[in-house]
Amino acid sequence: MGNIIFLALVLASFFGLSKLFAKAGIESWKGFVPFYNFYCLSKLLNKPWWWCIIMAVPGVNILMYGVYGFNVARAFNKPSNNDLIFASLLPYLFFVKLGFDDTAKFVGLSKFKIEPSKLIKNWIDPIVFAVIAASIIRGYFIEAFTIPTSSLEKSLMVGDFLFVNKFAYGPKIPQTPLAFPFAHHTLPLSETKKSYLEWIKLPYMRLPGFGSVKNNDIVVFNYPDGDTVALKQQNQSYYQIVRDNVEYAMEQNKNMTYAQAYKTSWDYVNSQEDIFGSIVARPVDKREHYVKRCVAIAGDNFSVINGEVHINNIKQEMPKNAQHRYIVKTKEALFGENGTGTNGQHTLSNYNLLDELDIYVSEAGKINGPNDTNYYDLNMPQATVEKVKALAGVYSVTLKVELKNYYDSRIFPHNPSYPWNNDNFGPLLMPKEGLTVPIDTHNICLYQKVLDTYDDGLHQVTKQGAQVLYDGKPITSYTFKQNYYFMMGDNRHNSADSRSWGLVPFDHIVGSPFFVWFSMKYAENNPVSGKSVLKSLTKNSKEGKFRWERFLCYVDDGNLHSIKIPFIIGVLGIWGFNKWNNRRKLKLEKEKK
């Protein structure tokens, strides 16, 4: 309904423009031709012709409508505050009102060349166009991100500030264009207030990109499981919250079927607003941004065997900075005792050693062994493993691998028929556009969300006896309508990724990280070196908060390459050229005098 109302308003504005063009001596039919009408309006207002191009950019064009409205009001001699506010906020209707206003005469904007209002000249105009320019850049070219979790540690680290290239795979057209500038899904200073309105919804579209998603690309995407969110527990999957309560319900009542327990859990989570908050749905473009490594692309046969990724039965090379869990046996309590950090997460008490080795402890930790032997469950890359092995008092360091056929209920597809876990997963055939696969009551759990949510809008997929019903009709096969990908973190045992929530559709793909401009440690992960800001300015990366070696680096397959020297040379070159150019202009002016 919102789309129809918006279309009606746009058509009304075209009608209004035709009346205004007639008042200004321009053929009225030009007001009805999309984009050309705004080209003519730009020329009439003596504004840059390329303003009309901005009207083709969804989301930003709504702001631009207000800019046109503001200038039209003044050009037709309606400079009162009420008219300017009306024209800026509802230009669609203002054009119609002005078209039928006999007192509205075209006088142009010449008297505003020397702006009578310093507020408009010095603040409003620059701010509006800065917002428009930044919105175009952020929406279609480059967007700034911060790495919030350690799933790609140590490739992309917690505290890395980076830019994402949206043209890597083609920028997406905003599907919810009515949104607060520069906010994602919630308003600034709020954790629950939506930053967007769904009055207007555009279909999924994207512009051509520089390439396609390839194996081992690091990719930014909209979190698929984020289509539904519990606002008080946004850092968890809503669906996993429900599943966790299913297990609890079945433990409390052994006679419950899974379907009954799921209904009980769903009702409980959706009714306990004081615990979980409101349960809200989010459109694709407003779902949380995640960044992971694409380990399998459309058409791949993917599996994990004893912690090693296999594609089409071929073992893949492990990423350079991949992390795994290890059981470390020590003579004494080398890494300290279990405790709780300042952020409420699990930690170990030997902060100095953990900080020195850059080991983050968010779960597991110390395990009591026989005869008071000390065992630690630690998450580390191979380089750190070698350092730990060399520590005095370390007896052994053993890779921890979950056993084959051990069923982990938190692992996709969350069905005992597929006893998969983090280290032994699959095989799973990745859906590819045009690929047809057989569907039955056994494997439907692998592709159910593809069929009922991702692939072709919302559909009802159910099981009835030995049949799978798709919108009430039996099916035995399905042909996929888009490509899907499997995303994993390099931090293989501390990453909520496709092993937890399944496949990533192509329409969720956002872009690729390409430049880290700043990086710092946080005190919760590095309680010693990550504390002080001022003292860190004179310290190296190991002892201080700032990771100097990660400043001004471009990203290539998770590896960083510094461009500090070229950047500094470039800045100095621009500064030097500007100084020379200003002196040259002053010299020419003196010669003219």
Please tell me about this protein's structure:
The protein has 593 residues and is of the alpha+beta class. Helices cover 31% and strands 20% of the residues. The strands form seven sheets. Strands 1, 2, 3, 6, 22, 23, 24, 25 and 26 form a nine-stranded antiparallel beta sheet that branches. A four-stranded antiparallel beta sheet has the order 9-8-7-16, with no helix packed on it. It has a four-stranded antiparallel beta sheet with strand order 13-14-10-15. The protein is globular. It starts with a helix and ends with a helix. The relative contact order is 0.10. The model has no long low-confidence stretch (mean pLDDT 89).
List the defining traits of the structure above.
593 residues, 26 strands, alpha+beta, globular, 15 helices
For the biggest sheet, the summary is:
9 strands, antiparallel
Residue stretches low in confidence (pLDDT < 50, at least 5 long) are: none
Coarse morphology: globular
What is the end-to-end distance? 66 Å
Structural category is alpha+beta
| Strand content bin | 15-25%
Assembly category: single chain
pLDDT averaged over residues: 89
**Number of extended strands:** 26
**CA-atom Rg in angstroms:** 29 Å
- SS element count, helices: 15
Helix content: 25-40%
What's the short version?
By secondary structure, this protein is of the alpha+beta class. The strands form 7 sheets. Strands 1, 2, 3, 6, 22, 23, 24, 25 and 26 form a 9-stranded antiparallel beta sheet that branches. The radius of gyration is 29 Å and the shape is globular.
How are the SSEs ordered, and which strands pair?
Blueprint: H1 2-23, H2 36-44, H3 51-54, H4 60-75, H5 81-89, H6 91-99, H7 118-140, E1 142-146, E2 160-165, E3 218-222, E4 228-230, H8 238-252, H9 258-271, H10 273-276, E5 279-281, E6 289-296, E7 301-305, E8 308-311, E9 314-315, E10 323-330, E11 338-340, E12 346-348, H11 351-357, E13 365-368, E14 374-381, H12 382-389, E15 394-399, E16 425-429, E17 436-438, H13 444-454, E18 461-464, E19 467-470, E20 473-475, E21 477-479, E22 484-488, H14 498-501, E23 504-505, E24 509-519, E25 553-556, E26 559-562, H15 564-592
Antiparallel strand pairs: 1-2, 2-24, 3-6, 3-24, 4-5, 6-22, 7-8, 7-16, 8-9, 10-14, 10-15, 11-12, 13-14, 17-21, 18-19, 19-20, 22-23, 24-25, 25-26
